Amino acid sequence: MATLTYPPGPKGRLLGGNFAAFRRDSLAYLQRATAEHGDVVYFRFGPQDVFFFNHPDHVKDVLVTHHQSFMKGRALQRAKRLLGEGLLTSEGEFHRRQRRLAQPAFHRAHIASYATVMTDYAARTASTWQDGATLDISQEMMRLTLAIVGKTLFDADVESEADEIGAALTSVMELFDFLLMPFSELLEKLPLPLPHVRRFQKAKERLDATIYRIIGERRRSGEDRGDLLSMLLSARDEEGDGGQMSDLQVRDEVMTLFLAGHETTSNALTWTWYLLSEHPEVEARLHEELETVLGRRQPTVEDVPRLRYTEMVLAESMRLYPPAWAIGRLALRDHEVGGYTIPAKALVLLSPYVTHRDARYFPEPERFDPERWTIAARESRPQFSYFPFGGGPRRCIGEGFAWMEGILLIAALARNWHMRLVPGHKVETLPVITLRPKHGMRMRVKKVMSKQ
User: Fold this and answer.
1) Are 317 and 272 in contact, with CB atoms under 8 Å apart?
2) Higher model confidence: residue 399 or residue 172?
3) DSSP string of 393-440, one letter each residue
4) 427 to each of 401, 424, 441, how far by Cα in Å?
5) Nearest-CA neighbor of 146 among 174, 165, 133, 124?
6) C-alpha to C-alpha distance for 289 and 283, rounded to whole angstroms
7) Residue 2 has pLDDT above 60, yes or no
8) What's the predicted TM-score (pTM) here?
9) Which spans in 26-105 are helix H?
10) Residues 315-369: pLDDT tens digits?
11) How far apart are CA 393 and CA 64, in angstroms?
């Protein structure tokens, strides 16, 4: 039987609870909470009850076994201000309908057809680099993944707009903390909008301009290009009401996939280059594989299963720096997890960042070690000790796309370039919607000398 007592946890202030302390350093706060209080922790954000679960069994219970007892948390509810009712934010039967309509675009055969675009765009990006130049690699990866998602999913060339779109997205990310503050809904409605609100609205309008332009051009042409956008515009819900998406629904899905489809991969790649820079012995092993598998040619989709060490490097990078560092759910009804009853309307937090650094599953958890991802090592750990793409019915629809893109881009760029962190550059995490590097990632790029 579940107890009626709350789990242990850090004490907060009388009115604000623990929200201010959490916002100051969210990652350290959650790590400290589980280190001091165990796998089930209770605290408050103002009047909001919060339950933080760290054990893989609890993660599975919330995301998979009893997923129907929960809905998306406050962060993603507030994200509707930007994303509308897209796959990331919608709920219930509407979400299931939208996922059915979008799923065919992420079939393995479609994903495989995107590989050449990924490697061609990587080559195009690298062609602009100069040997010995200093670059902000986080910006370079943002431009690259933005161009790829625009081309592969919507057959649209957005490279010329990449800097503007990136700046708008950065503004949205920076202002997201404001949207999560208590009473932010009321502050947004003031007669004279606050500067935060004006900047958010301007950034949203900039992003909408690109999305609506892409949709409008495709509507007018009536052309079926076999990409996601064509599928969204023509799809009918054969299992449901037989209906199609409205323009607004298409906009919401395009916005969600356009942004989520590049932001997460961009961050994963940026952290990978940083880790390789700090661990030249791992980079040397990576180059050995690339030399053996590829020689001097570009990688192709057929190479992906052969690039096992490259995949291990990416998996270990996403263990230490998972792009989605926290997952929130709201309890729809009273539900027992870990011997405690979560009351209806309580917020449940899960953190890949914290669970991925648990020494019970990953000895010496701060150490970057791709050997953790051999088949034997994977099978020795609980399933949800690692969940960078979530789990259950809400598992990221683009996971297969992301793995292929990450492996191909690492291979395409690393076979020709070394990247070294600029001495003195400060590396800190910035946990907003995704886990970004707070100060960018300034690195010096150097040409790989051919062995042939």
Assistant:
1) yes
2) 399
3) GGS-TTHHHHHHHHHHHHHHHHTTEEEEEPTT----EEESSSEEEBTB
4) 28, 9, 7
5) 165
6) 10
7) no
8) 0.90
9) 26-37, 56-60, 74-78, 80-83, 92-102
10) 999 999 999 999 999 999 999 998 999 999 999 999 999 999 999 999 999 999 9
11) 7
